[in-house]
Design goal:
Radius of gyration: 51 Å
Order of helices and strands: HEE
Number of strands: 2
Structural class: mainly alpha
Number of helices: 1
Oligomer: single chain
Length: about 180
């Protein structure tokens, strides 16, 4: 009898443990299924977000390419304009330099200190180099122009000031007065 009571006790104890384990397994399975469902929902939302980001990235890349193309066009236009302005400024500076040199030469001639260029009339398509002769008062023994020696500059007038073409663009350079 004691044996059968002990066996009944063991059977009841094992049945309770089995039922408890079954309940725990059901709970674990339910929790796992709930977690899987939650993770699937997160995965779907992340995939949707990824697709949105990919689309936005594609749009940004296209916009960047277009802006880069427009920037290159603008840079090319700027470089062309800069070259034109620099050429005009260089031309203007060259004219000013020529004006300064001619002004200094004419100023020296007026004071009888330097040779004067004798600009011969230029015919169309023909350009002659200026010929120099010395002032009679400065060095009468070395005259090369064949002049009669009267007058300080061989009876010739100083050359007219050079005319500059208008500068390109809005930059207008004024001629400096000569002293």
């Amino acid at each position: 009898m004691a044996l059968s009571v002990y066996q009944e006790y063991l059977a009841k104890s094992l049945t309770d443990k089995y039922n408890n384990l079954g309940t725990q397994v059901d709970k674990i399975i339910h929790d796992a299924n709930t977690e899987i469902t939650t993770l699937n929902q997160k995965l779907c939302s992340l995939q949707i977000e990824r697709e949105k980001l990919q689309s936005e990235n594609t749009n940004l890349v296209q916009a960047f390419r277009e802006k880069t193309r427009k920037h290159q066009q603008t840079q090319e236009l700027y470089d062309r304009l800069k070259r034109k302005e620099m050429a005009a400024a260089t031309q203007s500076a060259a004219f000013e330099s020529v004006d300064d040199v001619l002004g200094n030469v004419v100023g020296r001639i007026d004071h009888g200190r330097a040779p004067q260029p004798s600009f011969l009339s230029r015919q169309q398509g023909q350009e002659e180099a200026p010929q120099y002769h010395y002032d009679a008062n400065q060095d009468p023994g070395h005259r090369r122009d064949g002049g009669n020696g009267s007058g300080g500059n061989g009876g010739m007038m100083p050359p007219p000031p050079l005319r500059r073409p208008p500068a390109f663009g809005s930059h207008v350079f004024s001629k400096r007065p000569h002293s």
